[in-house]
Every structure is written in C-alpha cells, then in structure tokens.
Amino acid sequence: MRLQNLDDNNEHSERQRQFARELLQIGDGQMASVIPRTLSTNRTINKESTISLSTDIDSSAMESSLYEVTMLTDPNSIIPRQMFTDSSISSSNNNLLECMLAKDLEANLSQQKPNWRPVEKALAERAVAPATNTPLVPTPSSSLQPTSDTTSDSERVKKDKKRTAAVYDRMVESKMWGLKSGKYVEKEMKVVALEQEYEHPAHSVILDPTDPVWENRFNTEELKELRTFNRPIIPELPPHLEQFVESFEEKDTLDELYYHVRSFRFHPLNESVLHWMQIAVEEALMLLYHGYFTKNRTEADIIRRAWGFMDSCFDSSKDIISNSGEKASRAASEAQNQNRSVGGVSNTTRKKVGTKVDQLFAAPLFEPGAMEAGAESDRSSSKSITELHLKCPKTLKDMAVEMERFNPAQLHHIKSCGFIISGLYLQFLVLDCPAGYTCRVTKLPDWLPYPMSSYTLGIKTSNGRNKKDN
Questions:
Q1: CA distance 174 to 90
Q2: In this structure, is residue 366 part of a structural domain?
Q3: DSSP string covering 19-84
Q4: Which residue, 254, 249, 245, is CA-closest to 285?
Q5: CA triple 185-186-190, angle to 5 deg
Q6: Are 323 and 286 in contact (CB under 8 A)?
Q7: Of the candidates 208, 212, 251, 264, which lies 20 to 30 Å from 455 by C-alpha distance?
Q8: What's the total number of domains in the chain?
C-alpha cells in the first residue's frame, strides 16, 4: 500500500488507524480500488467488485494519493510487505497497518514484490467494456422519443407489440368510435398497429384518414366518415381582414405592391391584426426585392426571415406567447413523467425532458400548438415525413391530453394545432378527438408555397417579364 504526503504525527496516525479499521470492514476475498476523497464511505460488496473507500486527508494529499489494495481470495495467502511501505510515513505506523490487516485476514507478511498485473488487467477490461444504455422504445404513450429522430427500428417495435395490444385491449367497446357500418375504429387501428414493423401513428392511437394504410381497413364511405365526423372548422377571415387581402388583387408589379402596402396606416395596438398583416407583406416584398432566396440559407434563417410573421402574430395576444429555438414541450414532458414519483423501494428516476420543437405556442396553463421546421424545400424528405406524420402529431396529442385535464367535459371539442415547414413550403394540421379514444389528424390537401418569386405571387416584375419559379 502506498500512503503519500502524510506527516508522522498523532493526528495522521489516528487517521491511518481509522482507514485501517474501515479497510478491514470491506470483506473477505475481494479486490478493491481504494481512492481517498472525503470522510464518507461508499461500499458495494460483490465478487470482483470495485469499492470506493474514503478517509479524511488534507487537500494536498488528495491530489497525489492513491490507495490500491489487493485482497487475496485465499485467506492463507501471503500479503507482500512492499504493499505497506512508503518513505513518507514512519515504520511504526507502517507496522500498525500491516499487523491489523494481516491479523484480520489471518495472512502472513512477506518481503516479495506485489503483483499488480491482475488488477491492471481487470481495470483495462472494465475501461473497454461496451456501454449498456437502455434504448428508447416506442410505446402506445404518445411521446416516448425526446429527440428529433422518432423513427424506431424493427426490433424495438417488436418488443413493444405486447404493450401496444394491451393498451387497445383495455379500451371499453361502448366508448369506442363506432362507424355507421358497425365497425369500431379502435379495433381496426389495433390490427394496423400490430402489423407495423416500424413506428406508426397507430401505436399512439393517432389516425390520419389520408394515410394509405387505412384503405385496407375502411371502404370509401367509412374513410369519408372518418374525415368529416365532427370535423374541425377553420373560421373565415373577418370582413375587414378579407377586404385588406382583396385590395392587392389588381397590383401587377413588386413596386405597385410595395407602394400599396405602404399606403396604409394601421395602429399597432388598436388595429393590431391589420398592422401585423401589413408588416408581413412588407417583409415578404423586401426578401423578393433583394433576392434573399437565391442564396443558401440555414434552417434558422428560413424561420427567422421567411416565416417570422408566424412568431410576431402573437405579439399582441394576451393569452398565447410564441417561443422559438428548440423549446421543450411542457405537455410532452408531463406525458413522459406521468409515472415518476418519490423514491421508496428504488431511487427517484431522473425527470425526462419533453419533446423539443422549433417553435412552441404556449398559454399559462397549457400549450395549444407547435411548429417544426427544416431548411430544405423537400416535402418528401425523411425529416418532413417524420415530422408531419409522427413527431408533430404525437406532440399535439400530448398537448390535447394536457388541455383535457383542465376541462374533461370538453374532450371531443379540444383541438391542438401544428405547423410543418419544409424550406419554403408550409403544412398546417389540427389534432382532435372526434369520438372514442382516437386522436384524428386533419391537414391541408397540399403544402402552401411561400412566394419565392414574383411568379408565385401571380404578378409581374417591374420590367414586365415573368420570372420562372425555381
């Protein structure tokens, strides 16, 4: 044993005796790595285990001291005397430690050199041992994946099929969504969920009637009923807003649009919505004037400049605020931590972070919507498909569940809204619970393009030539 930087005085002698007494309590036939840190002692006694044992040592000793103790499996084995020899401590203190340890182990002392190779080998093997992190598994809960990658591999889904089936089996038939044909939506969803080898919205009891997978379970009339039953209604623009939009129809050039929009004088507080619409049109025209979209732009650039009006829309709202920049959803966090409690039999688990979204729309007690964005204008990319069909619907479901907690009687009237941005394309979706246990996703028939040029605005440039939309 090596004891470095300890003075030969009564205080240190007592500390050494304390260390020896604690050392003898570790157990028989064990191999231990003993590292001095504080007075606290942390012992876990198992075969071939590593044990941390601490003793009170001054800071200078802590920086340079390392106790390595090999406790031999045979109680009659010889303990090398060199293990206890160090020039920094007196022979009397050495003898005390040697005798106490040797007596307890009923071992003889020897002058032979210690063999540290077994210890070195064990430490090396432990250092290169592979990590055993538990993988995230998709389950019928609507948000088990806190990262942007929500696609699970086949093995994970196979392991979870029993849990998926159990969730559907707990549903009461009388509370399911029954169609006019006599079919129960949840029963058909269970079949589809168990057929999938990769994560699917049906695993979270989410249904998108436009998903081709449902064509094998429902006929044309049933699919129409799935889309239209208690369908969410998007309100029409108020007359004064509609009038403002229509006023641009006769303008043919960027200059005409610019001077027209600048002719209005809307008060930012008294006419907040009209003022917001005016600023949004002005900013879009500035991007077209300067050819903003002809240069490579990042995801942050696209959100901040092209779609910034979606954030400023809530500036005048008294109830909802917009937060951007990979914000964690509080509702998703609640869903993931619903079984978390104070440690009793086991330690309290770490709180899981909610699903992060690019933009979060939040009220004081709940979150009514979110937005996901990507820089590439590729609506068929894996990112766009995953966010449109999996990540965003699952997040919206968590939000709807959280809102339902505050008003259970309004379950079938609660809606959460999401936006998916794929570069310069926008998709809008609404999640609701029209009947039974099913959450339904309703989205636009097609993506809405941002006016990337005067051609997409349906106007002519100042020199009268049409520009091709790239």
A1: 84
A2: no
A3: HHHHHHTS-SS-EEEE---SS--B----TT---B------HHHHHH--EEEE--SSTTSEEEGGGG
A4: 254
A5: 120
A6: no
A7: 264
A8: 1
- The answer as to whether 215 is a domain residue is no
User: Residue 34: what residue type?
Assistant: V
Six token digits for residue 263 = 């002719």
Q: How far apart are CA 220 and CA 233, in angstroms?
A: 22
pLDDT at 307: 92
How far is 340 from 320, CA to CA, in rounded Å? 29
Query: The domain containing residue 20 runs over which residues?
Result: 10-127
Is-contact 189 207, C-beta < 8 A? yes
In order of 6, 48, 397, 412, 459, the CA distances from 384 in angstroms are: 64, 51, 18, 28, 29
Nearest to 328 by CA among 395, 237, 382: 395
Q: What is the pLDDT of residues 104-143, one digit of tens each?
A: 656 666 666 667 777 666 665 554 444 333 322 233 444 3
Asked if residue 182 is part of any domain, the answer here is no
**What are the tens digits of pLDDT across the range 144-202?**
333 344 445 666 666 788 899 999 999 999 999 999 999 999 999 999 999 988 889 99
231-251: pLDDT as tens digits: 998 889 999 999 999 999 888
Asked whether the predicted pLDDT for residue 271 surpasses 80, the reply is yes
Region of residue 464 (phi > 0: left; psi between -120 and 50: alpha; otherwise: beta): left
Q: Which residues contact 10 (CB under 8 A, 6 or more apart)?
A: none
Residue 85 lies in a domain: yes
Nearest C-alpha neighbor of 71 from the set 114, 23, 110, 32: 32
